[in-house]
Amino acid sequence: MVHLSTSRTHSAMLFPTPVGKSYSCQESSVELKNGDSSATVLLRVFQVQPFIFKGDDFGPEYECSSHGVGSFRDETAPIAVGSTLAIVVLLTVTGYGIYRYFKVEKVQYDTME
User: Fold this and answer.
1) Whole-angstrom Cα distance, residue 6 to residue 23?
2) In the chain, where are the structural domains located?
């Protein structure tokens, strides 16, 4: 028998839910680990009440995100936009430096007395 558990840090929340609401999801997976052993539990069509709620019914539903728990967010667009902006800024500064070097008249300070 292998005992598996979720992460023990407080920053790793499985199902973040506002107080007074129940967490509802169509599909979610939870990864369990213990040293070299690991497993994934797939949960489908479930609802949990994470806080004490008076009565036998669930509180108002709080729907999970469409990406599911533990899934990554695609960062392609922000990286592409940030890289493009950085390149445009560098080209603008370089172009302005070249323009100043060749087109702006140089002041001869040695003639001043």
Assistant:
1) 18
2) 1-73, 74-105
